[in-house]
Protein 1
Amino acid sequence: MGNKGFRVEHRYLELPDSFYTRVQPTPLKDAKMACFNHKLAREMGFHVTNEADWAKIGGGTELLEGMDPVAMKYTGHQFGMYNPELGDGRGLLLWETIGPDGRRWDWHLKGAGTTPYSRFGDGRAVLRSTIREYLCSEAMHGLGIPTTRALFMVSARDPVRRESIETAAALVRVAQSHIRFGHFEFAAHHEGPETVKTLLEHVISLHFPHLIQLAEEERHGRWFEEVVERTARLIADWQAVGFCHGVMNSDNMSIIGDTFDYGPFAFLDDFDAGYISNHTDQGGRYAYNRQPQVGFANCQYLANALLPAMDEDTIRKGLQRYETAYNGRFLQNMRDKLGLVQEDEGDLGLVMDTFSMLNEHRTDYTAFFRALSNLYDHGHAPLRDLFVDRQVADEWLARYEQRLKKETRARDEREYEMRRVNPKYILRNYLAQKVILEAQNGDFEPMKELLKVLEKPFDEQPDFEKYAELPPDWGKHLNISCSS
Ligand code: AMP
Ligand code: MG
């Protein structure tokens, strides 16, 4: 298949070879293209006419000329316990390409078979979880939140044993970087200070080029601050949109602040502050309202890993950035959602009381803010109808209207802006579940339609109203397990 004219680099392979093992994909049986992201391909600088050709890459039977697949080695803290055995257990970095706009792209084939880091795993990914990752990465992108992306996925006939027998699939995931906090933990705890420095300079030169010219101490300090801030802002964005990651282990934390590794994630339907999306997380370590703290704890793991290579005070200063960056971004996000431009010292109180109300009354999070963005056009009724006790809504609305008196924008103008931050469409678990069932019967069209809707979550899209519906009873409490 040649190299198809890609501008290729293998910068990851310039790292010490303890960071990877060369592994060829283990072919899947009869892999078929399930979904290809043509728009993303265009951004990356290529165009695909024959999807079947690309299915061969997804199925591990062919590689493009210049692909040199490796499994990455990293470690990390899983549910608070250090695990030295981690690494890409079922994914391979195929190559890195540079797009027409100069952006770099790691190509990672997830579900490619076993590697030296597979431990007890089979190296495979099932159709269900591959679809979920595909959908959610594109949904996140549609919401404007940093994330890895889905380039394409294939579906195959190979049986894969999870709680029941499922079938295999594979995803080509792309991102500016696949380096995780856990890469640094591996370097620090198993390789030594020089390796930490090498990795750090690698990350800076590829992803933080504006820092390259600074003197070493400042370069490292500023870099760590930026990583901490990006992480904090990412989580503030998750909280604002009601996203639960589910498995915030430090090996699932991207060094560039992308949402990374979609497993048992969920977007909240009825608001529940303590929501646990991963049903194997019995203690609720990664519950929705714990995510901001966990983000910080992960930055602390990273900080520990940097200690051998950086000055302790500099690291401490970097860590201190987390709280300010998180609080600032979170409050800004919530003011935007409420349509508040004038700053008022009571705003944080209003935000917290709003969360308490939504929590107490288990109000649909997305529908609440969307209804609030349409008071001018649709009146109070759609918002009141989200509450069993309408009086609760009335009292809250009265307080909100009072607060709006401090605003100067015209009502329609404010609500127009609010509709650009309060999505009408989100990837509710029941929507994902429906398209998964169709795909398991061989029909990927419903998945593609859902993807199209999620690409523009803030638009009205009158033909697709049904995707904005609240979950039916069966869809409210789906058990999403870690198995994928
Ligand atoms: P995750 O919880 O998906 O982030 O995975 C945690 C670790 O387990 C990573 O090192 C994965 O590569 C590995 N892993 C997950 N599933 C499998 C599998 N089916 N086969 C081999 N390794 C896996
Ligand atoms: Mg992972």
Note: The longest strand covers residues 149-161.
Protein 2
Amino acid sequence: MDDIRSTFHDLYGREPECSATAPGRVNLVGEHTDYNGGFVLPTVIPQRTTVELARRPDGLVCAWSANVAEAASQYHLGHEAREGRWIDYVQGVTSVLAAAGHALCGVDIRIDSSVPLGSGLSSSAALEIALLRALRSAFTLDIADVPLARLGQRAENEFVGAPCGVMDQMACSLAEDRVALFLDTRSLEFERVPLPAGTDLVVVNSGVSHHVAGADYATRRRECEEAARLLGVPQLRDLDVKDLDRLAGLPDTLRRRARHVILEDQRVVDAVAAMRAGDRRRLGDLFYASHASMRHDYEVSIPEIDLLVDLARKDPRVHGARLTGGGFGGSIVALAEEGTGREVGERVVREYGARTGRQATVLVPAPVDLDPDPRARAAPAREP
Ligand code: ADP
Ligand code: MG
């Protein structure tokens, strides 16, 4: 195995030609709405994925990641084949670029990320977008940021086999710090909406990792498609709160899934209004309502996440908290009074540790030294 301390030069005996980064993301509200054609409201986190790269004269791709305990992987361009592990994200990107008519030659790649893997903060899209940006720059590809996000999603859907919507890649490609991306996932129209003044976002990673490619996510997707079919609409996006009565005829599970999606779309619209009005309490209430809906109607929360939300709620400095990301593990996002975020997060982590024996981590507000020298880093965990 290559050592964590490997630099690009250590790995490939030369310097990289270019490097690009992309951030992780945290979704504020609008969960499981993207594959239903609905609304989402993500923003970026300070943690980022960096891809360094240099072209090779042959058709070989060599890739190494500081975040997985493995030697470098290799494959030939044009011979991408799914292996069921992390290199599929790299193979997926080169394969969709070729399918879209972009000519590449071989490359050496070094990946390093401070976005935790499998924690609902979109390390997968951060990797896809950082790699696409690096390739765009190395091969002067003419791809704008929205099509770039689409390519990332295609890599994940068609190659990796994870049926994610487009939110993650759009957020990683287009969102900005402290500005949320109000995105219509059907038209891909978006507006940038600043977070309300006087607030801290707090992101706490439960330490329980999920797998978006897992069966539960795909099941939810199928349930939504089935509900839409029974209701006679192309997607659940085509219904709104005035249609809630129509859900009465659905089987119980589908009724609850559809109710979550319809109300969650409305919560995104309401959250944008609250942010524009600077109404922190209203925004916080929408966080709690979204969490309750994900817990009871959509059933994607787990006891550890519910505990984190409850611990945050006990703090009078917190306006709202909820599961963020696809669920079945991952992270919570809370809205706290400005200047209190780190303290709130650390208190939640302490009490969570005492109750569960698990080590949670506060990710935002960011630690002071976000991008430590990889040489100083602890050894990487095995890929979850
Ligand atoms: P999330 O996107 O919420 O972090 P996913 O299950 O969608 O979770 O994606 C996580 C997977 O993406 C990892 O298990 C790994 O295969 C791949 N991945 C993401 N970031 C990296 C990285 N820096 N190095 C190697 N693989 C990565
Ligand atoms: Mg992902």
Note: Residues 183 and 364 are 22 Å apart (CA to CA).
